[in-house]
């Protein structure tokens, strides 16, 4: 069961030619630089833009093809914009209920008002006026209102971009909780890699109206061609589960496909699902396991690919840790002196791991 999107045509001087599909569950990030066509694609999905050469289906239900073009009001879409446009004369509760009244479908997994209020942490805000809310609170209400229409798909256009850094950090945990509960596909437009790493299950990488890569987050984000341009931020994201705690040293062991890593244990529970983000610059390579170093995390791996970055002094390596990818960033001289090559077995030494809860 997938969502299939295929849109091509021109808008002024801009040429869009994008085809991709993604599962009907989970968050799919449309990611790319400013002007690459993310918003245009989202508007095509909502029926707000019409490109005659378009096809859009959700689990086999056709919203656009050669014969069909459902008007925006005929599409069961929840749309969240960069800035929340709440009705100023209605209270938060009334804004939310406005969404519920516009409920269009009999979805198999409807979202309950009270549950949503609790997931978004907005109970204390229900009787307030939108004028008395912070930007982050307003955006949570806008998400709630969109979801209470019980849409078949939720489209979010850079929902955090108008918020300051702290408000972004505050709202992300709510989005993560929501993500676990939602059974509809969410398309999330962003150019912030941190939001992708924390929220997305799938990703579509866009550039100048074309799809550069699309697929599962772990595989796609570990591609060398993508990471070469991320420079210092090149990283992999690994889904993991906490399987052991070392209370004495405040550490926890996070197991992922292919291995496990010790991470800071503060606030983590046994069996908790988390995501690990490992920056390429925190991974070094050894030909043998070395004991007497301070680095605790060492994993046997195979080099699968090497690439020189735009800066010829720096190389990026893609590693395979028994089924999971890892990236390592090192100087070209180190790679040359260690005679590193594809297929070689090595030890990856991981200096630091970020836990994205
Ligand atoms: N209605 C339109 N007519 C003509 N050109 C348009 C129209 N809408 C968008 N464009 C152009 O299409 C290109 C893609 O715009 P779009 O807003 O989809 O990009 P984006 O990736 O969402 O960018 P950003 O991250 O800055 O919001 C831009 O060059 C824009 O100027």
TrEMBL record:
Q: Which InterPro entries match?
A: AAA+_ATPase (IPR003593), ABC_transporter-like_ATP-bd (IPR003439), ABC_transporter-like_CS (IPR017871), Mo/tungstate-bd_C_term_dom (IPR008995), ModC_ABC_ATP-bd (IPR011868), Molybdenum_import_ModC (IPR050334), Mop_domain (IPR004606), P-loop_NTPase (IPR027417)
Q: Which UniProt keywords apply?
A: ATP-binding, Cell inner membrane, Cell membrane, Membrane, Molybdenum, Nucleotide-binding, Translocase, Transport
Source organism's superkingdom?
Bacteria
Q: Does the keyword Ligase apply?
A: no
* Zinc recorded as keyword: no
Q: Which residues cross the membrane?
A: none
Q: Where is the Mop domain?
A: 292-357
Stretches assigned to the ABC transporter domain: 1-233
Signal sequence region: none
A single GO molecular function, which one?
Answer: ATP binding
Query: What cellular component GO annotations does this protein have?
Result: membrane
What name has this protein been given in UniProt?
A: ABC-type molybdate transport system, ATPase component
Q: Which organism is it from?
A: Gynuella sunshinyii YC6258
């Amino acid at each position: 069961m997938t969502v299939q999107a295929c849109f091509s045509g021109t808008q002024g001087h801009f040429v869009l030619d994008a085809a991709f599909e993604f599962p009907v569950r989970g968050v799919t990030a449309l990611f790319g630089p400013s002007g690459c066509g993310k918003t245009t694609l989202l508007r095509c999905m909502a029926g707000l833009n019409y490109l005659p050469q378009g096809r859009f289906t959700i689990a086999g239900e056709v919203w656009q093809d050669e014969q069909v073009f459902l008007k925006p009001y005929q599409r069961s879409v929840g749309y969240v914009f960069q800035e929340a446009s709440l009705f100023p004369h209605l209270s938060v509760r009334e804004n939310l209920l406005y969404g519920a009244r516009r409920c269009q479908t009999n979805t198999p997994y409807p979202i309950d008002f009270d549950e949503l209020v609790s997931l978004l942490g907005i109970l204390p805000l229900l009787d307030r006026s939108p004028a008395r809310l912070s930007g982050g609170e307003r955006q949570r209400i806008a998400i709630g209102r969109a979801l209470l229409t019980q849409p078949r798909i939720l489209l979010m256009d850079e929902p955090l971009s108008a918020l300051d850094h702290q408000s972004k950090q505050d709202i992300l945990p709510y989005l993560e909780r929501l993500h676990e509960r939602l059974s509809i596909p969410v398309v999330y437009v962003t150019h912030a890699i941190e939001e992708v790493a924390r929220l997305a299950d799938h990703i579509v990488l866009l550039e100048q109206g074309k799809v550069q890569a699309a697929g599962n987050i772990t595989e796609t984000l570990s591609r060398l061609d993508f990471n070469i341009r991320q420079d210092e931020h090149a990283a992999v994201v690994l889904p993991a589960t906490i399987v052991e705690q070392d209370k004495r040293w405040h550490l926890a062991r996070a197991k992922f496909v292919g291995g496990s890593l010790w991470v800071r244990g503060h606030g983590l529970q046994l069996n908790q699902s988390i995501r690990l983000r490992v920056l390429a610059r925190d991974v070094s390579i050894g030909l043998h396991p070395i004991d007497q170093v301070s680095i605790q995390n060492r994993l046997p791996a195979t080099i699968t690919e090497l690439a020189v970055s735009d800066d010829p002094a720096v190389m990026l390596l893609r590693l395979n840790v028994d089924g999971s990818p890892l990236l390592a960033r090192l100087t070209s001289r180190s790679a040359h002196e260690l005679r590193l090559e594809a297929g070689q077995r090595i030890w990856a030494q991981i200096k630091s791991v970020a836990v994205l809860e």
